[in-house]
Amino acid sequence: MVAKSLVYSVLLKxxxxxxxxxxxxLFVSVGGLVEKGLQRLRPESIEQLYFSSRxxxxxxxxxxxxxxxxxxxxxxLCYEPSAITNTLNRFFKKNNAEIRVHKTILVxxxxxxxxxxxxxxxxxxxxxxxxxxxxxxAALEKFMPxxxxxxLYLVRPPFDVERLxxxxxxxxxIHDFASFANVQRKGDTPRETxxxxxxxxxxxxxxxxxxxxxxxxxxxxxxxxxxxxKSFLYRQVxxxxxxxxxxxxxxxxxxxxxxxxxxPSQRNWSPKVQVAPPDGLFLLDVEYPLHVFAEGEDSGQxxxx
Length: 305
Fold this sequence. Notes:
Blueprint: E1 2-10, H1 30-38, E2 45-51, E3 60-71, H2 81-94, E4 99-106, E5 119-128, H3 137-140, E6 153-155, H4 164-171, E7 173-176, E8 194-204, E9 221-229, H5 236-248, H6 254-262, E10 281-287
Parallel strand pairs: 3-10, 5-6
Antiparallel strand pairs: 1-3, 1-4, 2-3, 5-9, 5-10, 7-8, 8-9
Helix pairs in contact: 1-2, 4-5, 4-6
């Protein structure tokens, strides 16, 4: 067995977990595409392909990691890390997959991409629109610049960002975030909901293009929500953003958030708050102890055409 770690970016509108289309044999998830790309190396077997973070469909990853054990018939190092990087990137480009592997690293057989991570950083991009004269959610979409489709959450005013500082400080630290977790079905294995949030910040954001290139940008006020922690519950970051939006819009307050933390329960999610959609969420970075990557890095060169 040779353990390898992959560092990659993906803007594909698919989740990480491998799945099949109902009427197609091709894998459409990130995990499925990575596995199919690895098959181009013709290994004896592909075992234990694990990702550091399982992102939902619609969530973007600027940087994510995975590890895999590749078995071959001969002893020793079967695959050069740079060969894995180049083979995967050629496969992704040929199949028009918006995934790129930055580097492949040889790691100890004990390494685990998910459990050895010491922190993860997420960015959530949102923008405040003018007040629509009428209509619901669909009325906001007329303010969406084309370049931002699928990468931005539009929210309506009022949006008082000054209300958010005490909420961000309240969310930081070690808490039982059961109120921010999905409701478990009867019979599911109980999960640990204690998590540590290292920081939550809300800062002015910016558009993907120069505002002069699309007149719709002139109507929007951009904000970035940055969340840093070791690990997160399923959709926890999106629920945190939903709470912040609710507070900024005046539908929720600091005492409501305090109540959710003081009385943690999977059924204590407030109907006043909407879970933020996946579109604006980006996994920015996954951090590991430095000694894990002390050897075996590839050259990082681009795949040959």
